[in-house]
Amino acid sequence: MWSRERRFDLSMLDRSLQEYLAFNPSLVKRRKQYALIKVLDFMRNDLGLKSIDELLSVDIKTLITSLQRWINKRAQETSIKTVRYDVYLVRSYFSYFDIEIPLKKLKIPRKGAKSRVDRIPSVAELQRLVMGTKSPRMRLAIMMLALTGMRLNECLSVRREHIDLNRGVITIPPENTKTGVGREVPTPSELKEELVRFFKEHFPYEKGFVFCVEGNPEKKVPVNRFYEVYIELLKRLGLDQKTPDGSAYVLHPHVFRKWYRTQLESAGVNKLLIDLWLGHNSGVEKVYYLPTPEIVQKEFEKADKALRIFGSVVQTAGEKLEALEEAVKFYETLFQHLQKKNPKLLRELGLE
């Protein structure tokens, strides 16, 4: 399902962009060129130019004015963090051609007009996602995200040699983390069982990316391809509701990380140890917190009981009712689909 691969063709861009991105290949590798192109194309249209190259001939004052219009527009659509990154990309592009745009001349709001309100998924929703996917890799990816708290890029960058089933840990090297600090994440029982099954049935290689392009273990699945398959899954299961501000799906991949932390804190796991597993910076406290193997094992035993998608998780009456309602809704949707697509089957089963 993840075999489709897309290549970005630099030759289709303006000459200045080709030169800049060739000098900064990491932007293309991380697919950040799209954000840069989007801003520069806005400025080109805003100033009535025929090409992005012509921006290099515009005076600084006009460039600042146009970029400020972009900032004002985007501040109404997304987070200020994203706006600041857009500005960083544009300033870097112009700086490469010896055109310096002073940051102090730009007015970036402290708060965006919209803020996303997240909620963690229910156990029933996690079960539907894991059981509803047709892809063994997507099934494993969702379980790994939820049961290890990894960021999406960390998860997709996991290699077979990073996983130690005997010790029960997954090593995340520094180059794959957001903070540049490597760490080890414990593997809960449910995830360990899924990994053993996945390696036996779907991953015949001794090394390589676990989430690889089909037939090539040295080529990992691009993040955008993961999103394509994941969003298709949300839509097929009827779980594609958007957040109140409309900026993202309610069940976007990062909420699995929040579910992980919530489960661990509810189980009474040491918060500094949770930060270590998540790769969060807890300040000076974390520097001085050096748990012994005995402490880690004791805390992991608590975590292992809490990190269950299909295991014996103690549910409240409200959670049981919610799970039942989710199940009823799922089968109603399935019934309606069969009524349209295959009414004959329903008659044969005596359901119509």
Q: What is the fold's blueprint, element by element?
A:
Elements: H1 15-23, H2 25-29, H3 33-46, H4 60-74, H5 80-96, H6 123-132, H7 136-148, H8 152-156, E1 163-164, E2 169-172, E3 183-186, H9 189-201, E4 212-213, E5 216-220, H10 223-237, H11 254-266, H12 271-278, H13 284-288, H14 293-306, H15 317-341, H16 343-348
Antiparallel strand pairs: 1-2, 2-3, 4-5
Helix pairs in contact: 3-4, 3-5, 6-7, 7-9, 7-11
Structure, described:
It is a single chain. The protein folds into 3 domains: 10-105; 123-265 and 293-311, hpI Integrase, Chain A (Orthogonal Bundle); 315-352. A 3-stranded antiparallel sheet has the order 1-2-3. Strands 4-5 form a two-stranded antiparallel sheet. With 352 residues, it is mainly α. The protein has 16 helices and 5 strands. The protein has helices at residues 15-23, 25-29, 33-46, 60-74, 80-96, 123-132, 136-148, 152-156, 189-201, 223-237, 254-266, 271-278, 284-288, 293-306, 317-341, 343-348; strands spanning 163-164, 169-172, 183-186, 212-213, 216-220. A hairpin with a 4-residue loop joins strand 1 (163-164) and strand 2 (169-172).
Mean pLDDT: 87
Number of strands: 5
N→C terminal distance: 34 Å
Approximately what portion of the residues adopt beta-strand conformation?
A: under 5%
Described by strand count, sense and barrel closure, the largest sheet is: 3 strands, antiparallel
- CATH class designation of the largest domain: Mainly Alpha
Separate helix tally: 16
Write out the CATH superfamily name of the largest domain: Intergrase catalytic core
Would you identify the regions where 5 or more consecutive residues have pLDDT less than 50? Answer: none
Shape: globular
Helix fraction, binned, reads 40-55%
CATH topology of the largest domain: hpI Integrase, Chain A
- In total, the number of domains comes to 3
Q: In terms of structural class, how would the helical and strand content be classed?
A: mainly alpha
Strand order, largest beta sheet: 1-2-3
H/E series, N to C?
HHHHHHHHEEEHEEHHHHHHH
Tell me the Rg in angstroms.
Answer: 24 Å
Per CATH, the architecture of the largest domain is: Orthogonal Bundle
Oligomer: single chain
